[in-house]
Amino acid sequence: MKFLNKPFFYKIRYGIITTLVVLVCLFWDLFFKIITDGFDIVIIDGFFGFFSIHNTGAAYGILGGQTTLLIVLSIVMVALIILYNYFHKNKSIYYCVSIGLILGGAIGNLIDRIFLGYVRDFIKFSFFSFTFNIADACLTIGVIMFLVYLLFFDNLFEFKKRKKKAVKKK
Hints:
By secondary structure, the protein is of the alpha+beta class. The chain has one domain (14-66, 79-154). The protein is 63% helix and 13% strand. It contains five helices and four strands. It has helices at 6-36, 67-87, 93-116, 134-152, 158-169, and strands spanning 40-44, 48-55, 119-125, 131-132. It has a four-stranded antiparallel β-sheet with strand order 1-2-3-4. Strand 1 (40-44) and strand 2 form a beta hairpin. It is globular.
């Protein structure tokens, strides 16, 4: 059973982590979208509740009614993220969680757009002017985590460090 050896699992561990994060995001997003669709539920009066909204656009209703365009853009973005992830070599658990959150959020909203023609938003805080869902939250958190990863952990600016070292040696 050669595939059960340690190097095999070492190679696929980051893929497993990313996949698990995607599946958890999808499960909770779709679960809450199903149980809150069509209902308005006040959780904390004047602060927080679930209010069912059908959004035919992107964030803040941008591109409202352009479902086909949003589906195509979502599929292209998911494909590009998967390609980037495939070729990216400097992976870590933090990186995998951020990519998993982004993919989980994008796929969660893509499922709604494909099968319903709109995205089901339901989370409403009184101090925000918009309603969102778990997929939106996963996307937002994932993008922030990914930017932090690029800036601080991925040696994105390593070429500048090398250039500075070369100048100092002269």
